[in-house]
């Protein structure tokens, strides 16, 4: 076991990679005062509801009844913000601040307050209200929530600070995103891989991320891994990730100010030099970008111990640093002395306003990190320039007969979106863009690649420093980049294999929460929607097998606020085009589009597709034979493969039982199924009944787990007649037909179910039923014999005339 | 841009860190032959259904109709396996092989075949069947699926090879888990952070993981990041993660054999030396464990190009290397020449059996990696030694009155499970064990920590090299370790905050799929259940706010196979004990237990709790007043906080409307609600009706999103009378009561709903209704004023006599 030397030597006099004392003594004095003002406000937020300037002796009744909030990383973050302020003023920089550590919001919000952004009145009354509303009902949270000026990153869930930061600087050449990275957060997988983002950043067209890894030392109750490895290991790790680490370590304020000022300035200069070099030479290269390791005690500037128990520099400083101040008078006194030690009377005038000599340390206007428009990206958002999607229609088709690839066709539309929006749109995906039949986009924008190039890359590598497609085998990083890109005012689309989009369940949840909460913050302008295109779906997994079969992302999304989530399952190529156009034009949603990438029968002309998508669901008259009569049964579908099988079942029934009246319904917009009370896209029961009836059996063939349809329709009239088929977690190495059969979603099973649901058919259709059962068995046998479905299944087309 | 020098110099003559030629020429010859045999089998699996030994000229009819499978990483993996075989024999090692790269299964399965584990007959007929079943309906997948002998890691989803590997070696001091890590997989977040696992491995009690990072160079369609950074960066990265990297790079077989033999042997020797040093000195330390960087061309030993397009050493070698062999005769010939180039006639005798001189290269019996019992961990599983959970009962309570912490109490039970199973059970969690009120376990097992120690750790740090609790701030790593630990035959429990368990949605999905599929593999012995304890739940988030409110993990789990998933929501402390005991004794499930960590009212004595948990749900007579009569309404609950509010609503109704007959139902075992047809825990409609009625309104207060209850009960008689309340994605910085109110799950809202659902009460209870509405408003006002709920809500207890 190592000695205690490391923990103590880290504090006290600053140790740093960059030497020098760039600050005058007077500057140090003022910066220390400003820092004290920020920390005073942090404690005020945690503890006080009255007596904000401590003009009176601190009493229990001045305290909040419930003490909530975190102290641990406040000082280190505030310190970093303060030092960047100096450089913003000196170099006229454009800087966004991202706060990665969990619950460090007071350190940030205090600066917003001091900069005049986050207060109604810069006086004692304003300060009191500012304190009270923190972590208080009706107020603001203890993360950098949407209410926090300048924030695009809440950090409630850890791990995404760096990927979000890179998202903000792509196509933002002048921006530096200063990113505090928590050492706890650094242990998460998403953060650990996001350091590699430098291999995808082009110094000519993109800005720069300046990470400050905050070695705060402790998480909630544990030391952090990176604070407990050797200096050499940590240096190697950062160098291995491709960065050049600069260390600033200590706690003594005077020397720490000098060290941080010199180091941060060195980093900014290096960034500018690399950018200058690349931009003047027009040769993109990957520098070893600078980053800072800032080691300060957790809870820095708190008392080192209270009653013999460590506070500063230990995990006890994580949350409310002294919890029993309301019941322990001596601890109340400790708190009072601590707060008074910041000398509020020397920082704020008697009205509670920050002294002018301190105020002038911060930048003004939009140069303030708390007021950077990038932090309210909707303000900067410009609509995409898009061709008319109808120009990409699949026109050369016989609906119901022609087999084409809707995804590959849509890729042409997407190619031109890329081409027409070269600084405003990027496509993201984990190494699956080509596999997902979207390679056409590379004609207008190759894959961004700043790693080494080999000669063989010329053989179809599609790599370029100035590409527009972002591919790294980390769904987390792709999603984080996209979120950062959108939140800073641009547009994008993520494409992913269906089973592995679950990897980012939690990230998408958090993004939904962010944009939903933004709706309640009046100054937040709406951002582009987060578009997720899911393909390589459950029904076409073949040899990938069971691990690649999971359509349940829709269940996760459907739980989020109806104000922000939209789910579309276009049944063919023209509907896919219409849906994609709609999604790319929309704002403030998470749009999820599910469409298989393989070739499929095309059903709708472009005009029909537009009509169908506009309604979101509808009766397909050409597939139905109940015109002018009550149907005997409704067959419904949602999802392309599911629609294909449902139509084949409909055809089997119509061929074999021509007297049977069948109504065929297709659903594109999943939330049409729900009541209008519960989702803006929902429809009234009256309309439901007109489409589905309230007294006929309905067989609903669904793309995903069947229960989602029941959850959406549980209150519908006639819901007891609704029989949903979908993926029931049955799969293996299956041909498409065999997989459908395992789950009861194949044409034969659906047709058999229809017969079984209509009492009059029980005897009348028994021979038809037997025929269907035998056909089903034959399909399975052929799969086992040849590894292929029967040819009549593989090449099935709609057998009736269309119109 | 770098020149092409790197790509070419990586191939050809071997370059390696360790020099030396440990192999005799004869050994090299035999190993090359064995390697050729393995590769021949790989191609056979991809292509052939007949003519397995190519005794006849290759014709289209010998090919599989559909070509599926992957070639890309097969050679590198096979090569590594082969070299470890040599050392297993030389040093009598106990080695498990984990295959991280996606779809590399042929490389592994071919060895299982050659070692005689994975074949019914070692002859031509056996080989033909072996080829045909690969990636074929009714056969096996293209990953290391449960059917693969020696596999505990399928790798269908990437990122978990290293965390799984560490899980297998914890408390397995003699085991070396050789882990192939894909360079694509290395880009995932979970993999990127899992390298830090060394800070949690004790060389005295644990075995060793030997990672081989396979720089195969390409993913599906992209180069990999780690293959396109400099040698210096990659070396630094591995050193920064705490490993000592050894490089083996090239393609020339003779020199590569020598390099790999020397290097792998060096690594094994170092591992043994470090273990010896720690074990003899009894001083645990963290060595810089050896690892290997193996750079070979993707698709190694394939033709370098076909028709002028790169194959070997390029991403085109990823999947089926030549796809059009059935339609392009010249390509069929290329394939035939390629396969014949491995000289099958010199490897297998005319019956198709591997020649004895090659056969002897592999170990025998359980020393074969394909037959290591750790790879079928259920064989090694020993039941936990557990005290009677009833001994930990909360006995000193007045049911319905006493407020206690059920979680903190259960921690005592868990403490003794830890204490009695010091090599067979570990507790896992992302830095939340203490926050989750489980710190009592530290008395029997501290937190494993192999990072540096500071003096201040003595102040309640609870760290130790020989601890039993695993805490790293990566849910992915915790889950991966736990899965590896269980799959290798031991027991464990993961505890997590509820909102962030979504981080591992996808991992849990994959584990469910693994154990479900294992049920179909007759030689797989059952492993301990994966137990997930979810706490810090949605209803008690206070200042954490909206980002910490997401109870939707249950929806993800509920989609998995009913054979393997179980969900429990114990309402109080004694039911929690009963449920935990049950889960820890069970096998082959994923058990999810949801219980809040705060103090709550206790409702059931231990005897009552056991009865209740055994039934899984039941009428609480003591809370009901419908004895001997039909109820007017059923009030049901599932989840502790939800039960608390539902009971409070029941009490309000009984106090204000004493004539109203209320039946109170509580659900512990969520799947009791579903039909017995769909889940083994489900119950028949008859029983449902006896409990819930089929004609009375039911108000069901649920812990999670309400729709999950509708999804489970959509076919139940009287389901139209079911009104579910739950979390509806409404939240902010809320007091507990205020949050409940936003979502309609508070006592007043529930009581008001009850009144509104009973037509007779519309007029009769109007004044009571008004009183309830006012009380609800007052609760909100008080929260806004003081940040606290009203005292009568905070300290509410059941107001009636309990028997």
What does this 3D model show about the protein?
The structure is a homodimer of 803-residue chains. Chain A is α/β, with parallel strands linked by helices and 803 residues long. Chain A has 3 domains: 5-379, Thiamin diphosphate (ThDP)-binding fold, Pyr/PP domains (Rossmann fold), CATH 3.40.50.970; 383-600, Thiamin diphosphate (ThDP)-binding fold, Pyr/PP domains (Rossmann fold), CATH 3.40.50.970; 621-794, Rossmann fold, CATH 3.40.50.920. Chain A is built from 25 helices and 23 strands. Chain A has a 6-stranded mixed sheet with strand order 1-5-6-4-3-2, with helices on both faces. In chain A, α16 links the parallel β16 and β17. The longest helix of chain A is centred in the first third of the chain and has 29 residues, at 253-281. Chain A is elongated and about 95 Å long. The first copy, chain A, starts with a helix and ends in a 9-residue tail after the last helix. At the A-B interface, α7, α8, β8, α13 and α14 of A face α7, α8, β8, α13 and α14 of B.
């Amino acid at each position: 076991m190592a000695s205690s030397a490391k923990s103590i030597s880290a504090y006290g006099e600053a140790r740093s990679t960059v030497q020098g004392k760039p600050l005058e003594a007077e500057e140090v004095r003022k910066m220390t005062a400003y820092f004290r003002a920020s920390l005073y406000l942090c404690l005020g937020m945690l503890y006080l509801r009255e007596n904000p300037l401590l003009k009176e002796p601190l009493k229990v009744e001045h305290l909040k009844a419930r003490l909530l909030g975190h102290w641990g990383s406040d000082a280190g973050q505030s310190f970093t913000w303060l030092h960047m302020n100096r450089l913003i003023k000196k170099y006229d920089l454009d800087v966004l601040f991202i706060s990665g550590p969990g619950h460090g919001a007071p350190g940030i919000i205090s600066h917003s307050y001091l900069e005049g952004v986050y207060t109604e009145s810069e006086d004692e009354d304003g300060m009191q209200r500012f304190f009270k509303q923190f972590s208080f009902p009706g107020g603001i949270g203890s993360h950098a929530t949407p209410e926090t000026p300048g924030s695009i990153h809440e950090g409630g869930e850890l791990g995404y600070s760096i990927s979000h930061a890179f998202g903000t600087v792509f196509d933002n050449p002048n921006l530096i995103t200063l990113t505090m990275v928590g050492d706890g957060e650094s242990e998460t997988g998403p953060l650990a891989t996001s350091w590699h983002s430098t291999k995808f950043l082009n110094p000519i067209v993109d800005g720069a991320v300046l990470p400050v890894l905050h070695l705060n030392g402790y998480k909630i109750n544990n030391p952090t891994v990176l604070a407990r490895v050797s200096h050499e290991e940590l240096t190697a790790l950062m160098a291995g990730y491709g960065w050049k680490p600069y260390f600033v370590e200590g706690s003594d304020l005077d020397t720490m100010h000098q060290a941080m000022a010199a180091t941060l300035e060195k980093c900014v200069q290096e960034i500018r030099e690399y950018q200058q070099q690349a931009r003047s030479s027009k040769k993109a290269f990957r520098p070893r970008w600078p980053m800072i390791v800032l080691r300060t005690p957790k809870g820095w500037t708190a008392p080192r111990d209270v009653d013999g128990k460590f506070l500063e520099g230990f995990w006890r400083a994580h949350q409310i640093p002294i919890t029993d101040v309301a019941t322990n008078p001596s601890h109340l006194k400790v708190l009072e002395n601590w707060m008074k030690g910041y000398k509020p009377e020397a920082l704020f005038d008697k009205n509670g306003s920050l002294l002018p000599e301190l105020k002038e340390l911060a930048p003004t206007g939009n140069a303030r990190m708390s007021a950077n428009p990038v932090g309210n990206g909707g303000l900067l958002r410009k609509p995409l320039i898009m061709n008319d999607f109808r120009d990409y229609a699949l026109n050369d088709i016989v609906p119901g007969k022609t087999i084409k690839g809707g995804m590959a066709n849509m890729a042409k539309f997407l190619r031109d979106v890329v081409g027409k929006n070269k600084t405003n749109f990027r496509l993201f995906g984990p190494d699956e863009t080509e596999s997902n039949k979207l390679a056409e986009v590379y004609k207008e924008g190759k894959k961004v690649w700043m790693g080494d190039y080999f000669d063989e890359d010329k053989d179809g590598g599609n790599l370029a420093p100035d590409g527009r497609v972002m591919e790294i085998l980390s769904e987390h990083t792709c999603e984080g980049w996209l979120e950062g890109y959108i939140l800073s005012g641009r547009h994008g689309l993520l494409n992913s294999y269906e089973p592995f989009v679950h990897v980012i369940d939690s990230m998408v949840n958090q993004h939904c929460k962010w944009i939903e909460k933004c709706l309640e913050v009046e100054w937040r302008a709406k951002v582009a929607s987060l578009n997720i295109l899911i393909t390589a779906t459950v029904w076409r997994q073949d040899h990938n097998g069971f691990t690649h079969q999971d359509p349940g992302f829709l269940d996760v999304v459907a739980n989020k606020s109806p104000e922000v989530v939209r789910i579309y399952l276009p049944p063919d190529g023209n509907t896919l085009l219409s849906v994609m156009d709609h999604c790319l034009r929309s704002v403030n949603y998470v749009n999820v589009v599910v469409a298989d990438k393989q070739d499929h029968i095309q059903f709708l002309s472009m005009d029909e597709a537009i009509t169908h998508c506009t309604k979101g669901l509808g009766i397909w008259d050409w597939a139905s034979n109940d015109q002018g009569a009550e149907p005997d049964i409704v067959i419904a579908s949602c999802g392309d493969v599911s629609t294909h099988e449902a139509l084949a079942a409909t055809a089997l029934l119509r061929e074999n039982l021509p007297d049977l009246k069948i109504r065929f319904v297709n659903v594109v917009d999943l939330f049409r199924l729900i009541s209008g009370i519960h989702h803006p896209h929902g429809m009234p029961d009256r309309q439901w009944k007109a489409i589905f009836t309230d007294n006929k059996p309905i067989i609903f063939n669904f793309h995903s787990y069947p229960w989602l349809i029941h959850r959406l329709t549980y209150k519908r009239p006639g819901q007891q007649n609704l029989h949903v088929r979908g993926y029931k977690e049955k799969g293996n190495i299956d041909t498409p037909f065999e997989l459908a059969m395992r789950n009861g979603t194949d044409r034969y099973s659906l047709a058999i179910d229809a017969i079984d649901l209509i009492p009059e058919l029980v005897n009348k259709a028994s021979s038809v039923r037997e025929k269907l059962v035998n056909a089903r068995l034959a399909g399975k046998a052929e799969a086992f014999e040849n590894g292929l479905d029967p040819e009549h299944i593989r090449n099935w087309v709609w057998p009736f005339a269309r119109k």
